[in-house]
Amino acid sequence: MLSIDDIKALMKELDSSSLSELKYETDETKITLRKASAFAGRGKVQPAAAAQAVPAPAAQAADQPAAAQADHSQKQDTENDPSLHKITAPMVGTFFASPKPDEDAYVKKGSKVDKKTVVCIVEAMKLFNEIEADCKGTIVDILAEDGQLVEYGQPLFLVKED
Questions:
Q1: What is the pTM of this model?
Q2: At 79, phi and psi to the nearest 5?
Q3: Alpha-carbon span 132 to 24, nearest angstrom
Q4: What is the pLDDT of residues 45-80, one digit of tens each?
Q5: Least C-beta-crowded within 10 Å: which of 35, 82, 120, 152?
Q6: Does residue 121 lie in a domain region?
Q7: Could you tell me if residue 129 is inside a domain?
């Protein structure tokens, strides 16, 4: 199995080489590394929601219409639902919902996924890493926005497992 240090070394080697992509696969591990040039033109990266100034919940409630409050409350309930599987960010990086800016997202709400379904890309250190669903089921919610900075372990998708 590859350690984090092994992956970092592979990323460094790929970055200094003329290769644009590296795939490594064993029975236990599958990793695909791509250089940023493979995704040129992705656009400006948006900061993470966690990095933005967020008003206190009471201030939020006063500023939001009732429908928006209900949607926010429902999303929090869904996110905390223990029956749903969370697909989390395996690293700090930028979340991309589609393989290229002008293409459809890998998945959307209601999409069926299995353990090998690519659900998004997380770009870290100029390398684009395909993230797989790691479970079988249906996408219930997408918790990250395209171009958003995500943290290690941050929930990206909620899946109702089959």
A1: 0.56
A2: -65, -30
A3: 15
A4: 444 443 333 444 444 445 555 555 555 444 555 667
A5: 82
A6: yes
A7: yes
